[in-house]
Design a protein that fits this description.
By secondary structure, the protein is an all-alpha fold. Helix content is 79%, strand content 0%. It has one domain (6-500).
């Protein structure tokens, strides 16, 4: 690998990953539909239980997705199949065991969750059935990460996003129409993850020597248990980070209010997480490419790719974030009036995600190149900030309490972790910031200021004005970033998209 053309390699992988990650927009639309059909309390209960499942998956995976990113690239097909077999053995044994324990203790666990009175009689039954999403999703996570470890970024993301998300949306609408307002979302999710698991199996058969993958052989399991054990905290911290505010709102606010607050926060978080599409797409690409570059002692190529990713992540995320801020009020207005309470929380979380985007692929670089303890400590620092601020702010009254307090705590904790990783990238001899970022940020803020002024002058109070202004601002912002924000070499690496850059 040399510096010549490495931006193009990153861009090619980014667009493949971005195409799949754009499925997060399906999820954003789904959130609007789910909240509309099931209400803040019903959707909030789903957000809490799905959050618990994601955190438990962080344990049952036993960090095998990260282990596979380190062991599979560059190995022989036989060695790759052995690695995947060991990873699936470790993770599925843990997942099935934990699902069984949870199902047997559903009565005790259900009593700890705040829910609306109408949902309480069904909660234990829902938990006993829904918990089996755990082994299915564990299989999807580990199996699709094995496809990604081969440098194939498109198919696995389609399975995780388009097929699973699309089927969940269709089923949830159908179950709501049948009157399953308590359990419909859970049944829809369980069935859609089952389909994703089948499609993941198909990908494994296509890309790996599947007879070796599914052979009854325990070789390599001990190595994967040891490697995964060192990395589990990284994955657990990441999942807990995302779900902690939902859990704390549900725990600190009793009854239906706790479920509703969790639902409102989940909607705000999902709107803000659209910005993660950009960062995660670069992370998916940079983790294996940076590991391969460092293994080949090609530090110049790694630096070039990392700085290119940072510039593009900032340009895209800042433009998209400004547009979402302009559209947020109108998007929430599509739901019931109760969701207007999530407006300021949405703005806070969007601001947090925009500042996080300025750190580029720092988190992925640390996971791929640093000691396993480094990302864990970064995440724990962020969780400590989020947890302490949540305990302080959520129970308090006023504009910085309750839902807004949870958003403030999450945004500050998120950036604590992101900027620790950013600073540690310098210790890896990968300085991510260049002066180009000042120009990129200034252009985004200028477009946003003009859009706000124009919207207030021409469309004050008009329904839909925010969305219309956001679309125009996004188009103008991206054009300006392409022509005046990023470097000419960056635009050239974007292929056909770079053709829209003005001629010198």
């Amino acid at each position: 690998m040399t510096t010549d053309g490495v931006e193009g390699k990153v861009a090619q992988g980014f667009f493949a990953a971005l195409l799949g990650r754009m499925g997060a927009l399906i999820e954003a639309v789904s959130i609007v539909v789910f909240a509309w059909l099931y209400g803040a309390e019903g959707f909030g209960l789903f957000a809490v239980l799905w959050g618990y499942m994601k955190v438990m998956t962080a344990i049952t995976e036993w960090a095998q997705p990260i282990v596979l990113q380190r062991l599979v690239p560059g190995e022989t097909p036989d060695a790759q199949a052995r690695a995947l077999r060991a990873a699936l053995t470790v993770s599925l044994v843990l997942a099935v065991s934990l699902a069984l324990v949870t199902a047997l203790n559903a009565d005790r666990l259900g009593a700890l969750i705040s829910a609306a009175p109408d949902d309480m009689p069904h909660l234990r039954h829902i938990l006993r059935i829904y918990v089996w999403v755990l082994p299915l999703w564990t299989f999807v996570e580990v199996g699709t990460s094995a496809i990604r470890a081969l440098g194939t970024f498109g198919p696995e993301i389609k399975v995780r996003i388009f097929y699973e998300q699309g089927l969940r949306l269709a089923l949830a609408v159908g179950f709501a129409g049948m009157g399953l307002t308590s359990a419909g979302l859970f049944y829809a999710h369980l069935i859609s993850v089952g389909l994703a698991a089948l499609l993941t199996l198909r990908l494994i058969v296509k890309h790996y020597r599947w007879r070796q993958v599914f052979a009854l052989n325990a070789s390599g399991v001990a190595q994967h248990v040891k490697l995964g054990g060192a990395l589990v905290p990284v994955n657990l911290v990441r999942k807990l980070f995302s779900e902690l505010p939902v859990f704390m709102l549900n725990a600190l606010i009793a009854g239906a209010g706790g479920a509703a607050a969790a639902g409102l926060y989940a909607v705000a978080r999902k709107l803000a997480s659209v910005l993660q599409v950009v960062r995660l797409a670069f992370d998916y690409v940079m983790a294996p490419l940076s590991a391969a570059g460092r293994r080949a002692h090609d530090d110049d190529a790694v630096l070039t790719m990392a700085q290119f990713s940072t510039r593009l992540a900032a340009a895209l995320a800042l433009s998209l974030g400004c547009a979402l801020i302009l559209a947020a009020e109108d998007i929430l207005a599509l739901l019931s009036p109760a969701f207007a309470a999530a407006y300021f929380a949405t703005l806070i979380l969007l601001g947090g995600r925009m500042t996080e985007a300025m750190t580029g692929p720092a988190a992925a670089l640390n996971e791929a190149l640093s000691h396993p303890l480094v990302p864990t400590l970064n995440g724990l620092a962020g969780i400590a900030v989020t947890a302490s601020l949540s305990f302080w702010l959520i129970p308090s009254d006023g504009p910085f309490g309750g839902l807004n307090g949870a958003a403030i705590a999450a945004a500050l904790g998120l950036n604590m972790t992101a900027y620790l990783a950013f600073l540690q990238a310098y210790r890896l001899n990968i300085p991510l910031w260049t002066w180009d970022l000042v120009r990129i940020a200034a252009l985004a803020l200028a477009v946003f200021a003009v859009a706000v002024g124009g919207s207030n002058w021409a469309h004050a109070g008009s329904m839909g004005a925010g969305i219309a202004t956001a679309i125009l601002a996004l188009a103008a912002g991206l054009w300006l970033q392409l022509n005046y924000g990023i470097r000419a070499s960056d635009a050239a690496a974007l292929g056909k998209l770079g053709a829209f850059r003005r001629r010198a």
